[in-house]
Amino acid sequence: MNQTITLITGNLNKVRELSRLLNIELSNEKINLPEIQTTDVAEVAKVKAEAAYKIVKKPVLVDDTGLTIRAWGELPGALIRWFIDNVGNAGIVGMLGDNDRAAFAATALGYCDENGSRVFNGMVDGTIPEKPRGENGFGFDAIFIPKGSEKTFAEMTSDEKDSFSSRAIAAAKMRELLKN
Amino acid sequence: MNQTITLITGNLNKVRELSRLLNIELSNEKINLPEIQTTDVAEVAKVKAEAAYKIVKKPVLVDDTGLTIRAWGELPGALIRWFIDNVGNAGIVGMLGDNDRAAFAATALGYCDENGSRVFNGMVDGTIPEKPRGENGFGFDAIFIPKGSEKTFAEMTSDEKDSFSSRAIAAAKMRELLKN
């Protein structure tokens, strides 16, 4: 696979993380594509990658990453950005109240080229802290502590985060495809 | 307009309420159409009505009704069903904690026929009770008290609910279209 891959996002943090994790140079393009209403990141990534390919007509990649709080069933999952944009990380923690703090982060990398689409999934268990902590990262990084660490993603260096993150797990699966 | 209108839903409560409010007989069809990811009921209703018309090829109607809790910005809005399905009305009230209880309900009726699509909007202010109350109605009826009443929608008769509901306001606008 020698062709450049276009990451469909306006989020430069995602471009940076995925270029590092996939060990390739990604171009990026912000295209406003409707996302489907679901808590499932894999569904969002698949549909969006296929829609983006029809427009870009070159290999495209979509990253959809969600945070699921087990006490809330499937919520927010892929709907996390609505929570972050409307109540922020502190608001999410507030809504959780005294509920159990178990959670998981999930990343779906949707890839589409002339041969069709593939989705690579990564998932990591963890917990929600009492309040947001840390300044690094982006999105929900300040309210997710992956299993095996006591730090939130936002308290970690990039290397530390990559050793735990659902994005890194999904990207490792995709690297296998890139090799072949 | 002499043609039957097909309401795109599997929810018989919606069929019943809208037949009554529009004073016409509605047929209904459950079509699994992806809804777009947004808090805005008008966007969902428009896109879904247009997609449904392409399949049904007869006049179609879509009802998207949301509940927005002002302390949560635009949430849940059109995403309400994910909240109800995952944490239930009691869970939503629990997530609200000590926050201000102001809220509004919004209905968008998306209609589409061979002449294109129209959206009719209804909105009603209200508050969220301390816990779910009442057995009537459906959806979030047990956790919404419209301004001007002390009852939740689920504590009202159909007639009472119709005198307050965002669905009734949107339907009144649509009746004007049906007359012409």
What does this protein structure show overall?
2 copies of one chain form a homodimer. Chain A is α/β, with parallel strands linked by helices and 180 residues long. In chain A, 35% of the residues lie in helices and 26% in strands. In chain A, strands 1, 2, 3, 4, 5, 6 and 7 form a 7-stranded mixed sheet that branches. In chain A, helix 1 links the parallel strand 1 (5-8) and strand 2 (26-29). In chain A, helix 1 (12-22) crosses helix 5 (166-179). The longest helix of chain A is centred in the middle third of the chain and has 17 residues, at 80-96. The termini of chain A are close together. Chains A and B meet through helix 3 of A and helix 3 of B.
Measured as a percent range, the helix fraction of chain A is 25-40%
- The total of helices of chain A stands at 5
Which residues of chain A sit in consecutive blocks of at least 5 with pLDDT less than 50? none
Q: What profile does the largest beta sheet of chain A have?
A: 7 strands, mixed
Q: How much beta of chain A, percentage-wise?
A: 25-35%
Task: Give the N-terminus to C-terminus distance of chain A in angstroms.
Answer: 8 Å
Largest interface: chains, residues each: A-B, 25 and 25 residues
What would you call the shape of chain A?
Answer: globular
What structural class results from the helix and strand content of chain A?
alpha/beta
Number of strands of chain A: 7
Assembly level: homodimer
Radius of gyration of chain A: 16 Å
* Helix-strand pattern of chain A: EHEHEEHEEEHH
Task: Calculate the mean pLDDT score of chain A and round it.
Answer: 96
